[in-house]
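Provenance and format

Records in this collection were gathered into a single text stream. Each protein contributes a sequence line and a token line. The two records reproduced below are adjacent in the stream.
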Amino acid sequence: MTQETGTIDQAILRRAIGLASSYLLTDTSTNPDGGIATWKTGFNRLVDVVVVLHHRDELELVTFNEASKACSECWSVGGTWRGMEECRQGVKEVAAKLKKLLDEPNRRTYKGHKVYAPNNSSTT
């Protein structure tokens, strides 16, 4: 957040969200007992900021897409690495928050624009 305007720098937010899958690996490998919980808390808090931006009508499509992409990457990591299957529950929780922001009724667009989805790489 900038002190001058009170706005959230979404480029920095996107960078942090984009690192979610890296933090998933790091947190769980450096702290086997609490790493998943730490990662889950951090990822949820980042997406909570995305939700706040949406409610303030400030959320940029590229930020939403970065969060969606991070969910996809974390889902893949959670299913690929042994012992990380429970991470997928954390991804489901985050994805549910994002899904609520999508346009009704199809939940495939955000403010009329296609969004990133693992099976839909052609976002606009």
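Adjacent record:
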Amino acid sequence: MNAVIGAMDRVFMPSAPAERLGMLRVLVGGYALIYLIIRSPFLMSYAHVDQAFFRPVGLATFAPRPLLPAVVIALVILTIVFAACFAFGYRYRITGPIFAALQLWVLTYSNSFGMILHVDHMMTLQIIVLALAPAADAISLDSRAGRVKKGEESGRYGWAIRLIAIVCTAVYLLAAFAKYGNSGAEFVSEVNLRNYIAYDNVRKIELGSVYSPLGAWLLSYPLFFAAMAWLSLIIEWGAPAALLHRRAGVVWAVLIWGFHWGVLLMMAIGFVYQLTGVAFACFFRVEKILDWRWVQRLAARFEVDPPGETSTEP
């Protein structure tokens, strides 16, 4: 029994340094902060959408009717403020969970008026995991001020990183089920993916939107699309293999990152969170970023503790 428990601990609570989890918080939180600032006009626009379109999803189902316009705008502003606290690790035990809840509310509310956008889901799930973890024990304003004490490398920091990786791989495994469920074996034929990309590009041309010239040019090569369909299914079905070993995770992360760049090039559809690589940072030793010279200069300017040092302040 002890051997089984030990094996489960190694799988679900692998040892990791506080700096790795802290850097994940910085990367994910920093992306979320920039994303929310850029998207704030769009998110605030739902304050003035016709109430007849309100079809609540997620947390918004607890609202019997659309919120007052001033409340919608105030919640978006509050979400941005708490996103900054999250990214910088300020009073994290309080601000982290509050930000995760606000982010979930604001994004589900914006999805409650007819069109459900799924580009934010992975980011939001990863934020929720980070908000429940000791992700501000290093590389944070809390650690700098001595409000938290960094522990030794252990599963205390590793469980959240592993759970973020599980969330990431589960998203693509579900995508594989959806593709196979909708099209069956036809998905990997020469025509299925080709026709889908052709339809998407023609629709965008007709609507005057941005389309992919590369995707249109490749339509003359149906075997290429059959190969791409097989490759995408293999990568997505193989997502759980990324959890078996660190190197397998790195290889899979690079492949799925390349997959998203392929989607951008052939369909002009960009999943920015994935394209930046932040979505897959959990598979890498991101604390090594602290060894970059320009990062060290920036850390020195803000007096951030170097990696390996433990705060002794009460």
